Amino acid sequence: MDPQKQTQESQGEKANPLLIPISIILSGALIGAGLYLSSRPSASEVRSSGNNSVVDDINVPSIKSDDHVFGNPRAEVVIIEYSDTECPFCKTFHATLKRIVNDYGKDGKVAWVYRHFPIAQLHSRAGKEAEATECAAELGGNSKFWEFTDAVFARTPSNNGLNPAELPKIAEDIGLNVNKFESCLSSGKYAKKVQDQYNEAIVGGGNGTPFSVVFAKDGQKIAVKGAQPYEVLKTIIEASLNPTLPVAP
């Protein structure tokens, strides 16, 4: 299935739901900075601190039954990330999140949930890559989802740079049945899941990638804007585990 055809009309509207965020993303200065724009700097963000905000009304669900979780699903703190495999900032942030979970996850304190947010107008191949990760999960479980996703980020130069012919090669390299993988991918069976998660990110306030929300120990939600560096994210995690600490460094 052509990833450019994945976009579905929003309920009750004829307008393409991708057009609004793209008009924001295409600002050259902001793309260069790799920032996530908040279109809703409302009263819900009056407790903002630094580049990140504690948000009371953000509409992003916590862990769901069909999520891909890295770490303990019952962790005290859960990071929900919406990502695009062809986004260079997502590639950087992927490594940062892995480091965070490796540091905090061994004690079961932090978990990372990966959800799809492919920006088709910028990265036409990202949607099919997202479907490919779901096929990997179908054939090999949660661990193969993460292996496949890691491999895509490792191999792509970003910005639509991964040749689609690499996808079955990645499947083979991580030990999946290539014929079954190709059959799954060509069926388009996961296009709706990818689109649903895209829509979920938009409804939740995502205007660029990566878009993340940290569910803190005390139930608060912290919107993380863009590909924040390790030290900034570490401060957010520490504050999420200990609500008496400030969110910003």
UniProtKB/TrEMBL annotation:
UniProt KW keywords: Disulfide bond, Membrane, Oxidoreductase, Redox-active center, Signal, Transmembrane, Transmembrane helix
Family annotation (InterPro entries): Thioredoxin-like_fold, Thioredoxin-like_sf, Thioredoxin_domain
Domain of life from the UniProt record: Bacteria
Domain Thioredoxin: 49-242
Transmembrane annotation, as ranges: 18-37
One annotated GO molecular function: oxidoreductase activity
Signal peptide annotation: none
Family: Belongs to the thioredoxin family. DsbA subfamily.
Protein name listed in UniProt: Thioredoxin domain-containing protein
Species of the source: Candidatus Zambryskibacteria bacterium CG11_big_fil_rev_8_21_14_0_20_40_24
